[in-house]
């Protein structure tokens, strides 16, 4: 039998969660303005795990875990502020739903931001556990008596998500200190387990060698607490993953907007498994009188009512509160270091990147590099990580499985535990499985946690068409990425910019995507020698949002002039195509697509009076068309011609055949024709 104090605390917490759920139902018209779900029926397992977590632990609750939040010490008032989207909501400042916590209190487990996309939290959570693994392997972890662990809470229905498999695979492969707590109430929303699952989470976990799984009655507090006590102690000492499958009833609505009476046919059966009377009986068995139990329940109800009335009167966010914490501030705002030192010979772009990463890793033990094929045997398919594994070890530079979602999303957890991951997606065409994590988890973390959890990461992406790469190794994806708010995007055209932007990205606390054109890596494409540079100094950094005037002209009185606004390979097409138009073409190399140096672009266009935007992407619905629209809007009174755009043909993919590839994408001659057309307009 458990200690009386443990049972008393658990009962008070459960009574509070139950009182909150009942109060929400009584005041449905007030609280249903915003969607919410409660833990009613799930309380026992949630409280059992919460009571055993320590401040150094990391928790990733899911949207039904309000009892877990109470169990770690949050007050009903705290949760109600989020329920009603109030300004002082401690998690998000009124930005996200009830029970979508993010917490960085010193005396409580840490809760990084996570979305409510069911199951998506498994990858960031596993990333945090991998962060602990890395720190322990490399002896940079804190020396504390009780080693930290990660709890990832999931509903059983979410375990069918493919990204759960990626998380479990890595946890098993690396033997990570993580507990996957799966609460199985038998339902998705209106679909039940028989319709949607071939097996439950306990059965599923057996397929992952290295993950130990148990199945328990999650509605029995004592059974749950004792089982979790053993599991948590094992994870703390043996540093390996567990999955606990807890069977629980759902005693409230799926959410406030999806009422259980509309579709449930098992309500009476569910009520018979209510954890509240079970815990009440356990309290009685250890000597609590009926009056003492009633008094505990009465105190909980009273506390909930007082907090609810107080929360209703709390201040709402002001309009200006919308505009904070989209990014964390960066200290890198000016170009520093030597860009063009005297060297014996120039180096190619890929080597500038390699040297930058090596310098970062030599200086910062919290930095690490992972992705597909970046390890010691190959060092990246473009040799962009050559020799790094040999220099820094297999714990710092390592291969991952083919798991783009994990590569991208794990950076959330890695960053949360104090690391700076540099990760790679092998080709831009492979980024699509990672977009879910990039959009829902990485990009929104700073904003939706109200600034508490910016994701400090670098995602390197080889991009563009080169050498008959065909339809799966040649795509341009910047238009999709620039539509994801909350990330910074670089697209350098030469080695100096790539090194400077990589260094700035490392010291930037925000997520950065660096698009690196494959055709510029080695300057093997005719006309791209300008991508080779004297390697900048080690301290060279180039701030984001500062365009470069790659070719400057004076304002002409007798000649027609144009500005070419471009980036990446487009810079080289523009430089070569403009050779026959002396003093007529100014070229603006954006260098970063977000933030965009709008001032430099508009200043140039207002001087030349005409503008051509050059991109490698197909132009329909593209970033380039959007940029052209911005220029047209801001410079309308200065223009002598419409802003024009040239890019690839608007076909679904880049063909493998070299003739078809050449026909598809822009080149120097095509850009030259467009320059002539615009000059003669």
TrEMBL record:
Its EC number is 1.2.4.4. It is an enzyme of class 1 (oxidoreductase). Keywords: Oxidoreductase, Thiamine pyrophosphate. Residues 347-523 form the Transketolase-like pyrimidine-binding domain. GO terms for molecular function: branched-chain 2-oxo acid dehydrogenase activity. It comes from the Bacteria. This is 3-methyl-2-oxobutanoate dehydrogenase (2-methylpropanoyl-transferring).
């Amino acid at each position: 039998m458990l200690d009386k104090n443990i049972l008393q605390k658990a009962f008070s917490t459960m009574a509070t969660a139950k009182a909150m759920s009942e109060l929400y139902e009584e005041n449905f018209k007030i609280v249903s303005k915003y969607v919410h779900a409660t833990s009613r029926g799930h309380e026992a397992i949630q409280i059992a795990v919460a009571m055993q977590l320590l401040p150094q632990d990391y928790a990733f609750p899911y949207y039904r875990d309000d009892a877990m939040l109470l169990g770690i010490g949050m007050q009903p008032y705290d949760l109600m502020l989020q329920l009603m989207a109030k300004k002082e909501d401690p998690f998000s400042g009124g930005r996200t739903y009830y029970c979508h916590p993010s917490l960085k209190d010193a005396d409580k487990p840490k809760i990084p931001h996570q979305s409510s996309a069911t199951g998506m939290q498994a990858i960031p959570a596993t990333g945090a556990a991998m962060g602990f693994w890395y720190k322990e392997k490399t002896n940079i972890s804190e020396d504390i008596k009780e080693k930290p662990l990660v709890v990832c809470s999931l509903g059983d229905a979410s375990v069918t998500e493919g990204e759960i498999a990626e998380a479990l695979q890595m946890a098993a492969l690396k033997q990570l200190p993580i507990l996957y707590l799966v609460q199985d109430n038998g339902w998705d929303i209106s679909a039940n387990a028989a319709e949607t699952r071939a097996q439950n989470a306990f059965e599923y976990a057996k397929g992952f060698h290295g993950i130990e799984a148990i199945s328990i009655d999650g509605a029995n507090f004592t059974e749950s607490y004792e089982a979790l006590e053993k599991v948590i102690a094992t994870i703390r000492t043996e540093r390996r993953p567990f999955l606990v499958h807890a069977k629980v009833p759902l005693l409230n609505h799926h959410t406030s907007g999806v009422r259980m009476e509309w579709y449930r046919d098992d309500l009476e059966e569910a009520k018979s498994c209510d954890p509240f009377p079970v815990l009440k009986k356990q309290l009685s068995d250890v000597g609590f009188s009926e009056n003492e139990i009633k008094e505990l329940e009465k105190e909980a109800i009273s506390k909930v009512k007082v907090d609810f009335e107080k929360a209703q009167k709390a201040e709402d966010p002001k309009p200006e509160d919308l505009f904070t914490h989209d990014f964390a501030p960066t200290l890198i705002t000016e170009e520093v270091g030597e860009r063009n030192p005297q060297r014996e010979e120039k180096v190619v772009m890929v080597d500038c990147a390699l040297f930058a990463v090596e310098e970062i890793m030599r200086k910062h033990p919290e930095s690490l590099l992972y992705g597909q094929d970046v390890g010691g045997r190959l060092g990246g398919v473009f040799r962009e990580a050559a020799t790094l594994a040999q220099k820094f070890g297999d714990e710092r530079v390592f291969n991952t499985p083919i798991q783009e979602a994990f590569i991208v999303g794990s950076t959330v957890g890695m960053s949360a535990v104090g690391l700076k991951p540099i990760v790679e997606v092998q080709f831009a065409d492979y980024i699509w499985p990672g977009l879910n994590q990039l959009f829902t988890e990485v990009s929104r973390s700073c904003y939706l946690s109200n600034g508490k959890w910016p994701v400090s990461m670098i995602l390197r992406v080889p991009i563009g068409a080169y050498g008959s790469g065909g339809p799966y190794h040649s795509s341009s994806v910047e238009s999709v990425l620039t539509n994801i708010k909350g990330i910074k995007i670089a697209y350098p055209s030469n080695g100096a910019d790539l090194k400077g932007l990589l260094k700035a990205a490392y010291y930037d606390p925000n997520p950065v995507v660096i698009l690196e054109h494959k055709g510029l890596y080695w300057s093997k494409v005719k006309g791209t020698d300008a991508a080779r540079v004297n390697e900048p100094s080690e301290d060279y950094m180039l701030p984001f949002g500062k365009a470069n005037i790659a070719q400057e002209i004076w304002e002409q009185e007798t000649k027609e002039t144009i500005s070419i606004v471009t980036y990446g390979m487009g810079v080289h097409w523009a430089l070569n195509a403009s050779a026959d138009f002396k003093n007529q073409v100014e070229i603006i190399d954006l260098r970063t697509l977000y933030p965009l140096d709008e001032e430099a672009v508009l200043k140039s266009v207002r001087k030349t009076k005409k503008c051509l935007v050059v991109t490698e992407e197909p132009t329909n619905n593209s970033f380039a068309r959007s940029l052209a629209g911005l220029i047209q809007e801001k410079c309308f009174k200065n223009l002598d011609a419409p802003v024009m755009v040239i890019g690839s043909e608007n076909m679904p993919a880049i063909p493998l055949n070299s003739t078809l590839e050449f026909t598809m994408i822009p080149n120097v001659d095509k850009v030259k024709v467009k320059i002539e057309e615009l000059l003669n307009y």
